[in-house]
Amino acid sequence: MAKHQHKHTKKGKEHAEERETADRGTRSSDAGPLPKLKRKPYEQEMRRLHGELVAMQEWVKSSGAKICIVFEGRDTAGKGGTIKRITERVSPRVFRVAALPAPNERERSQMYIQRYIRHFPSAGEVVIFDRSWYNRAGVERVMGFCTPEQTERFLEQAPEVERAMVESGILLIKYWLEVSPDEQTRRLESRMDDPRKVWKLTDMDLKSYSRWYDYSRARDAMLAASDTPWAPWFIARTDDKKRGRLNIITHLLSQIPYEPF
């Protein structure tokens, strides 16, 4: 799990050490990519992590913690699958997923982030955003659903909103899932060819597919503006979905001061 390097972080040798640590689990000792993780070891480790997520859940309930997890990333990068594995063995009364549809006419007249605020966690809750207020910095920017001025204003305001969240006692954890162009192409083709997956394929996916570099520029601008000491971004490489899910859940657990079973 790589922590995005913002302007406040360490430099030089310490930077190199941090990058090396972040790359463990994604590359072998000779710097080549690790082979795709097999299902049996994946399920064995996932079973263990599910137990830890239950322990985390009990700590959240007893401590009254408020945890907000944001998942953003490329189309087909595996956000939905990762969220499903996080939530499948825990209580929906504690772990809640917020996946908001396009805003209605009333919501479009509100302050941009207003419709997200009502989904923020209360004491004893974990709220997972399957895409979030960062739509304004990503798909809305790239697809022309907002003006450049609206995007810039959002990027100026988002860090201060997140500072207020953290100061109110919310533990905010933000993940960006990154997938390579070749793997994205393979996954989109898989959705086209498999009737069990075709529901995942939207017109927006097809339009977005041709704008890889526009999304890259939007991502870079978003990370530069909103990666802060109080709410940093963590970047997960997910060409290997199984390995990516394990890395994300392991990292998430490391961010929560619960007592392991």
CATH topology: Rossmann fold
Amino-to-carboxy terminus distance: 23 Å
The beta-strand count equals: 6
What topology, given as strand order, has the largest sheet?
A: 1-6-5-2-4-3
Tell me, briefly, the overall form. Answer: globular
Q: Mean pLDDT, rounded to whole units?
A: 87
Rg on CA atoms, Å: 18 Å
Structural class: alpha/beta
Element-by-element helix/strand order? EHHEHEHHEHHEHHHEH
Percent range of helical residues: 40-55%
Question: What does the main sheet amount to?
Answer: 6 strands, mixed
- CATH class reads Alpha Beta
Low-confidence stretches: 6-30
User: In the residues, how many domains can be counted?
Assistant: 1
CATH architecture group name:
3-Layer(aba) Sandwich
CATH superfamily (homologous) name: P-loop containing nucleotide triphosphate hydrolases
Percentage beta strand: 5-15%
Please work out how many helical segments DSSP would assign. Answer: 11
Labels describing this entry:
six-stranded mixed β-sheet; single chain; 261 residues; alpha/beta; 11 helices
Describe the structure.
This protein is an alpha/beta fold. It has one domain: 3-Layer(aba) Sandwich (Rossmann fold), CATH 3.40.50.300. It is 48% helix and 13% strand. The protein has a 6-stranded mixed sheet with strand order 1-6-5-2-4-3, sandwiched between helices. It starts with a strand and ends in a 7-residue tail after the last helix. About 10% of the residues have low confidence.
